[in-house]
User: What shape does this take?
Amino acid sequence: MKPLFIPLLFLMAAMLLTLYGCQEQEPIIEPEPEPEPEVDGGVQDDSSYDAPKTIESPMIVAFNCEFSGFPMMNEDSPLANHAYQLEARLPNGAVKGTYAVRTGYDNENLFFSADHSFMRELQQVVDTYDLAQYNGLSRRVSGLPDMYGAYLHIVYASGESIYASDNQDCFLPIAALEDLERLFRRYIHSPRISVEEVIYTEERGNSTLSIRYPEILLDATGEPLLAAAFDRYNTQIRGDQEAALHYTLRYAADHMGANAPSELYSHANICITRQDARVVSFYEELAQEIGILDHLDYRRTFNFDGVTGEPLGYADIFTDPNSLAPLLAEAFAAIEPNLFPIYMMEDTISASVYSEDGLVCFALAQDGVHFFAERNPLGGDVGLLHVTLSYDDHPDLVKAYYR
Assistant: This one.
């Protein structure tokens, strides 16, 4: 009889195979492949070339612009070696803005509030430089540090928007960026200046004598140098007007007697043309009726560095002071044709600019420069000339820092 254990072994093996085949197989999960690292210098262009290039709505409700001025080292621009983020939103009827700037050494984040007029000014810049033309641009180069180009995102009340981004090249015009930075800086850094009027009157003989002059107050404890500059101005104008009272108005009233006018006065006031972190400028108007002479009008201008409080002259402000004489001679001749020939005016203006004697003086404004001159030395009657040279017409007139 043959042994039974061999067929039994085959039977057990078959049963085991059957049981194993009835069990559910565990799925084999393949590991996900590791994402390939970005190659430095690789370009990803997702630009939408059919994005709208015109915007119908005039009302901006959100604005964000980031740009780098580090590549502008060779440009005559105050933006060079700085990176900016300028942001403004209109959440509940009032503008909330951010002005952030960084250099290679430090950074600053400042905030401000404004009314709707800020957004209107912002839209003027957008229109002037047709920023909608860049809508849809989206280009990214991997491996670059932070934002090294420019980013622009504007949302309008209509739902329209402008979006453009390139982290390598600053596609926005430098002039547009300068205007945007200047607008935001004007709101964030504007010194809080107020002007009070001081008036003194007295009766003397048949005349009423009066002097009037401004007193500038600066509400900014963190700007002691500028405050000191205004204190010096206040002392000067007060001394000038008190001297006019003591030595001119009273003298006229006493010596003219019954022939003295009923009013003798020396009145001064100022017009502030610009105030921001870089410069404060104003001109002073002085009107005098002293009886002995005809009515007199004067202008004096003042320009102070917004940080140091130092007075700023022609050499500080203008790219080429020597170029001013022909420009101003032509501008004055355009508004007063009866002056000396232009070549004669150029000599007089050039001498005044060089000596800074005040015959021709200037006051900076946001969009240009005011120039004043006395008519008589330029061949006209007694009186004043006033012209304004705009930055649009003369972009290289003023050094970049003071534009």
Notes: The helical segments are 5-22, 116-128, 174-189, 224-256, 314-317, 324-335, 342-355.
